[in-house]
Sequence to fold (282 residues):
Amino acid sequence: MGYNELKQHGTEDFPIELYHIDKTHTRYEMAAHWHSEFEIIRVLEGVLNVRLNNNSYTVTKNETVFVNSETLHQAYPEDCVYECIVFRLDMIHSLNIDSTFFIDCVRNRELIIDEYHADRYPSITAAVKELFETMATDSAGSKLKILGALLKLFGEIADINWYHSGDNVSLTTEKNMLKLKTVLSFMRSHYDVPISLEEMAYAAGMSSKYFCHFFKEMTTKTPVEYLNLYRIEKASGKLIRTEMSVTEIALSCGFNDLSYFIKTFKQIKGSTPAQYRRRALQ
Fold:
C-alpha cells in the first residue's frame, strides 16, 4: 500500500521539519493518517489527546509522544499548543556508523520506540528539548547541531532500552489497521466529491452497519465526522493559499451545500471560513 502522506518534510538532502501548531494552523486537529517518517510530538500548552494505532494517550505540557514509522496517528487538542518534528531515519542511517544497526531495526519496525514519555527519564526529556530548540535556530552550523541532537536522542533511547520488539503486534490488529488504512486512503483520495457510506464500507470490504462500528472503534470518529474533518482541513489550506471564493472552496472540498459547509467549518475551526481567512492573512 502506498504511504498515506507523501509530503516532503524538510529538503531532499536534509529531510527534517519542525511544525509549530496552534489554533490558527490548518491541521490543529490532526485527522488520522500515517507516513514512512518518524515523528516526535511535544506539548507546550494545554492538553493533546493522541491516538497511535489502538493506543490512546492524554498528553500534557512538556510531555512527548514518539510516532513510529507507518503508525496510524491522530490528535485532538484542548486549548493546546504543540510542536512536531518529522524526519526520515535515513538521516542517521546514512552516517554509516556502527550503531546504525539499531536505527535499521527501528526503520524496519523490528524494534518499536516506546510511544509515550511523561518525563520518566530526565535524559530523554533533556535530549528532546535540545532537539526542538536546535530545530528552532538558524545558523551556519545548525544542520550539524541538529544531526548531533538526533544522535544524542537515539543514543539515550538505546541506552535505557526505551523500545520493544515489533513482533508483539497481533495478526488481527495488523489486518484491522490494513483495512482502516485502505478506507482512509479512499476517503482522502475522494474528499472533493460526494462519497456515500456504502462506498466507504465497500472500500473497507465490510457491510455498512459493521463498517460504522469498526470505524468509530478504530478512530473515535464516525466516518462522516472524519471525512468532514479532513475536508475542512483541506478547505483551511485553500482559504490561506488561494484566492478562491468560499463557495468555490466548498464545492472543491466535496460540500454541495454552502450553508452546511459554513456550519461544519465553524464547528471544527470555531469561526466562519471568511473570519478564518481574515485572521490568517492579517
